[in-house]
Specification:
heterodimer; A: 248 residues; Rossmann fold; 2 domains; four-stranded antiparallel beta sheet; 40% helix; B: 444 residues; mainly alpha; two-stranded antiparallel ribbon; 4 strands; 69% helix; globular
């Protein structure tokens, strides 16, 4: 499970990306080592989601490098990036509402053309993490609650047996209790399965507690980085992201 | 569970039953609006007199009848609404009725299929019904073909008739110019139509919804206009005549000595050919259905449906949306091409008039009325649209009116189409065995 410790699994170097004339990423550097959880925090519009989408090739990087396992993927077509076993749970969950839970999960497995045995073991793992999904297998995705939909979105991403899992705001709009269940599941995936995770969050408190390391993004630039506990101690982080968020 | 829901919903029902005064007021307002509208539309009739001057006369009797109908109708509708209760009420259906209905629902498709197979036997001597059945089956096939594009992949295509035309002209031109037989031309017509489907697909890859609809509409018109204007190839508005009839693997169904009847030693009858055409289109339609059902269970079919649901999520999952869309267009177009080749061989004559936007709209209406994505729904809708339209023939000029009203009512009562639910394509072998502790955890 462990890659050579000197080379990061994902290395981003001076990455620029833009929507038309609006520059969303203005030279981002970021490393994710195999087996760690990295949190990316920042305010609305800082470019967190754009960074995640750019890793997936939409929008394309204007300049800079995105190296996954030593290979530059900044020009690889989106559907082939998923085949390298980078999975994402996109912002707003985006499950398929009229398809059943089982079909939603199968969609995740389709892209990487998993074998029947891999599919079955993937399902078993998802059911131990999220037992509720097992009961809801034949239900339509759109009839699930918000928390269950988030579980489904993560489960769907897991079905492609990812080496890197990227989660965009997994706690958005969820009750605190459900959000904690989701974070617990992410921790379990990291500790027990050695899964590498990039988590984009506005809920900085939760995310930094969970993560080994964190990055803070402001206006398309990384302004701060450090271990999760280091960042949690910084007064500017507390002022900007925690004091307001703690009440919730 | 159901009891609790109905109890909570039933309580506000009693408080908002409108009184007699309310009903009368509403009916009076409706009648007043009708009076204003109809006074000129119905109350006064103008016509050209014998010397060309304008004459008019009044029809106050008809006007009064219409206004009275609106008044009475409004009261009836309001009373019906009270009797039925609020929209949100959960109605408890007895278990026996429910199981009976579900049994009937499962039997509809097999019974319909068996009946279809027997149609030429039952109605052997009724040419009119056989012709109508062939027409209905043609539209069933077109509906199933378009269903791949619109129902499964969710790409609104208003120019489907283009592929129907490509198929028909492919067969007609190949058969009349090169003397190729129907069975050689049929796959060629499908391939050519699929090719045009891909050609249409490329420029519209980035379009969705309304924009896609406009471009496909234009594409359908372009194909028709090219056919009209390219006189040297297509014969223009005069069309193509003398398209060969299909043969039973080389044996013509003609009265001559080498005809099928003579070889079998039975007396020739023109009905043989009609029956043959019937089974031909039935086989083509069932092929369409079978392929679609099989594709739905494969990753490509699931990708079509996922594309309909959420294109961004598809990309995040690593689905190649380009090939997914193009295969949907190509598959749908191919079946349209098959149907077109059949149409050409059945008619023996084709002209651009058969491939107007009206056909696209009709096929799309069949798909939407049937319930997008439902195979059985599309078949029932084609039967209702084409067969029903013939049924109303006795109503003369009111036929369109009755038909339009029926469609509006259907869309009010069943906004998702006749058969709105979709059957899942992935099943778990162990989904019955849910252990008790898991169930408890879920409830908590």
């Amino acid at each position: 499970m462990t890659a050579p410790s000197n080379a990061p699994l994902l290395a981003i170097r001076s990455l620029h990306a833009a929507y038309g004339k609006i520059e969303a990423l203005r030279g981002v550097d970021l490393d994710i080592n195999a087996g760690e959880i990295v949190a990316l925090i920042g305010a609305n519009g800082a470019g967190k989601s754009t960074l995640m989408m750019t890793i997936f090739g939409r929008p394309r990087a204007r300049s800079g490098r995105i190296e996954f396992d030593g290979q530059d993927i900044s020009a690889v077509p989106t559907h082939e990036i998923a085949r390298l076993r980078i999975a994402q749970s996109p912002e707003g969950r985006r499950i398929f509402p009229r398809m059943s839970v089982a079909e939603n999960l199968q969609m995740g497995a389709d892209a990487t053309s998993s074998s029947e045995a891999e599919r079955a073991s993937g399902l078993e793992r998802i059911f131990t993490l999220f037992p509720r999904l097992k009961e809801r297998m034949s239900q339509r995705g759109g009839t699930l609650s918000g928390g269950e939909q988030q579980m489904l979105a993560i489960g769907r991403a897991l079905m492609s047996r990812p080496r890197l899992l990227m989660l965009d705001e997994p706690s958005l709009g969820l009750a605190p209790l459900i959000a904690r269940q989701i974070f617990d599941a992410i921790r379990a995936l990291n500790r027990q399965d050695g899964l590498t995770v990039l988590i984009v969050e506005q809920n900085a408190n939760h995310a930094l507690r969970l993560a080994h390391r964190g990055y803070v993004m402001v206006n398309g630039l990384i302004t701060l980085s450090g271990t999760g506990s280091e960042l949690l101690q910084r007064p500017e982080i507390r002022a900007a992201y925690l004091e307001g968020g703690r009440r919730a | 569970m159901a009891g609790r829901v109905s109890a909570t919903l039933a309580s506000p029902q009693d408080s908002r039953v409108p009184g007699i005064a309310f009903i009368f007021k509403k009916a009076l307002i409706s009648a007043l609006v009708a009076l204003v509208l109809f006074s000129l539309m119905i109350g006064v009739r103008t016509d050209a007199g014998p010397d060309g001057q304008l004459t008019y006369w009044t029809r106050f009797g008809d006007l009064a009848a219409m206004v009275a109908t609106v008044f009475g109708g409004s009261i009836v509708v309001e009373l019906l609404r009270q009797w039925w209760g609020p929209v949100g009420t959960v109605r408890v259906v007895p278990a026996s009725v429910q199981s009976g209905l579900s049994l009937a629902g499962r039997l509809v498709a097999p019974v319909l299929l068996v009946f279809t197979f027997l149609v030429p036997v039952i109605f052997y001597n009724e040419r009119y019904i056989l012709d109508l059945a062939i027409l209905v089956l043609t539209y069933v096939m077109l509906g199933w073909g378009l269903n791949v594009v619109v129902g499964l992949a969710g790409l609104l295509d208003l120019g489907y008739v283009a592929f129907y035309a490509v198929g028909a002209y492919s067969y007609a031109l190949l058969a009349t110019n090169f003397g190729l037989s129907f069975w050689v031309c049929l796959p060629l017509a499908g391939i050519l139509a699929a090719f045009w489907g891909v050609l249409l697909g490329f420029p519209v890859l980035r379009l969705r919804g309304d924009y896609l609809a406009i471009v496909t509409l234009a594409f359908g018109e372009i194909i028709r206009l090219v056919i009209i204007n390219w006189q040297s190839l297509t014969g223009g508005p005069n069309g193509i005549t003398g398209i060969p009839r299909p043969t039973l693997f080389g044996i013509p169904l003609s009265p001559g000595e080498d005809g099928l009847a003579a070889r079998l030693g039975i007396e020739f009858s023109p009905t043989h050919r009609i029956v043959f055409l019937f089974y031909l289109i039935l086989a083509l339609a069932l092929l369409t259905n079978w392929v679609t059902i099989r594709l739905r269970r494969l990753p490509i079919g699931r990708a079509w449906e996922a594309l309909r649901e959420d294109e961004i999520a598809c990309r995040a999952l690593g689905i190649n949306t380009t090939t997914t869309k193009l295969t949907a267009f190509a598959t749908g177009a191919m079946f349209g091409g098959f149907a077109g080749a059949f149409f050409a061989t059945r008619q023996g004559f084709i002209s651009p008039e058969s491939f107007t936007f009206h056909e696209s709209a009709l096929v799309l209406a069949i798909v939407v009325l049937g319930g997008m994505g439902s195979q059985l729904g599309v078949a029932l809708a084609a039967l209702a649209m084409i067969g029903g339209f013939e049924l109303f023939r006795g109503l003369d000029q009111y036929r369109m009116l009755v038909f339009g009203m029926a469609m509006v009512l259907l869309m009010i009562w069943r906004p998702r189409g006749l058969i709105g639910h979709r059957a899942p394509t992935v099943f778990l072998r162990h989904n019955q065995a849910i252990s008790a502790d898991l169930v408890n955890e879920g409830r908590g």
